[in-house]
Amino acid sequence: MRRYLSLAFAIAALTGGAQAATLEDMAGQMIVVGFEGSSANAASVKAIAGELEAGRLGGVMYLKKNVASLGAVKAMNALFRGSTTSLPPFITLDQEGGSVERLTNDVGFTEIPNARSIAASNSPEQAEAIYARMAAGIADLGFSVNFGPVADLDVNPDNQVITRFGRAFSADPAVVTAYDAAFIEAHHAAGLVTSLKHFPGHGSSTADSHEGFVDITQTWSPDELVPYKTLIDQGSADMVMVAHLYHADYSDGDEQSPSSLSPRWIEGVLRSELGFDGVVISDDLEMGAIRDHFTLEETVLKAVGAGMDVLLFSNTAYQRPGLNQEVLDILLREAAADPAFAERIEQSYERIVALKSRIK
Questions:
Q1: Each residue of 327-340: pLDDT tens digit?
Q2: Residue 243: closest CA among 305, 194, 199
């Protein structure tokens, strides 16, 4: 495990001289989960902080149920950040604007329009100023990751998950890229990490992966990769979120694996063809497209085997306080049996360390 030397130096730079990470530490960093509770005093929130402190968890995901007030959110995030003595946690949320917002006017956070409206009424420069104000508010609350921008193309007027809610900037890849760049720059200026989504492109789909299996074979176009390619080439892509989409021409053997569990999509298209060497994160692995077809163990093993670095679980379907430990146990059992799988964990950890070194 020659990587340990380089990793030790990377971690020492972050922590002021910590010992080399164990495989359990590395695997723990690959897990991000949703949680119960909306107060730093809640037992469930303290328990999650304890998992972060123990290194069995790499980050948390906020949903609206976790947001009682801005003060409570700030206190929880301070607890999460203070729980780790080595790598900072990924403290994540979806704050796109429009209907996809965890922080709302109801709790005193200024909402902004959806992507389609932003692009229709503002230049990319004006959009960057709008996103800068939003990002500053997010950062002030202690978050470190915003799951955006949406890189999908608005190409299917009947699309249920993107077009219906105005989440895409345009049907034109160049326009989408320009506004994505504005979103990213605004967040970088606030010290936040971003995540392009939903690779390889959810805008042409005819179904919603939250609900079940989504086949994009007849609707998807390579144009949907253009924003990813351009932003990766520009060095702007922090993370790429992979959706649960099936395309017969990109299948792995006889398996109908969605893109989030597909080596062909992740290692083949995203890494080899588009040249992305950063952190790959899954869309929520509890969506119907995954949960209805794969067990938890199958999901974890297939995702990591396909090249996934961070496994995202909303913990809304499983609803188990020990979910991160279950996932960690699966990772460690497989790593003990398969040296190649253990090496995959190390590779993911190296990418996560590099990205977390940028969190303020």
A1: 999 999 999 999 99
A2: 199
